Amino acid sequence: MNTATARLSARGLVKRFGSTTALAGVDVDLAGGESLAVMGPSGSGKSTLLHCLAGILLPDSGTVALDGTEVGGLSDRERSLLRRKHYGFVFQFGQLLSELPAIENVALPAMLLGTPRREATDLAGRWLGSLGLAGMEARRPGELSGGQAQRVAVARALITGPAVVFADEPTGALDQSTGHDVMRILTETTKAAGASLVVVTHDAQVADWCDRRIEVRDGLVRQAEAAR
């Protein structure tokens, strides 16, 4: 892929934690609307790669650029704003706020960007409805099944119209059938919204839902192939 046409591009990423090298010079390109699975065994560096791509961690060397803007050149405040506006996140255990109902969990990112509460909750309700959760808007996370909670997390990730959604082991806490359903929804909704998707997983069946996969071992990309 031409770096100039990539939505998200990383070059020569190196990240160390003490004497451990988590990333040893990684290049990644992600096109607009493309889904990418990042695979590898525990400790291979795949989660560190996601955190660097998302601007949560800064690499010791190398660059990450979103639509041509170098993330490492931004201040802490600017990177935080970039994550709020242009990135969405889905985590293994959802990380929903237990005290808030589903509709407010989804609306919260939009409200943090200044969207009026009524407008944000209306939009959140539409997202929940589109993901098969109509009638569950008032339920708190503890009143939802694992699959339903992850659908809420997907809606929360997409409500701000992000450029990229990052999903870290999004099916890790689910049974196989429910996990496949969540991956179908995640890949279909991100593509329909025009967002790119990065999925960190150790499960080849989860990776098969993505357009392409890379394998990280010992901090390096060892393999790249079409996932389907």
Automatic annotation (TrEMBL):
It comes from the Bacteria. One of its GO terms (molecular function) is ATP binding. The keyword Cell cycle does not apply. Residues 8-226 form the ABC transporter domain. Pfam families: ABC_tran. Gene3D superfamilies: P-loop containing nucleotide triphosphate hydrolases. It comes from Cellulomonas humilata. Keywords: ATP-binding, Nucleotide-binding, Transport. Signal peptide: none annotated. PROSITE patterns: ABC_TRANSPORTER_1, ABC_TRANSPORTER_2. This is ABC transport system ATP-binding protein. The keyword Chloroplast does not apply. The lineage of its organism: Bacteria, Bacillati, Actinomycetota, Actinomycetes, Micrococcales.
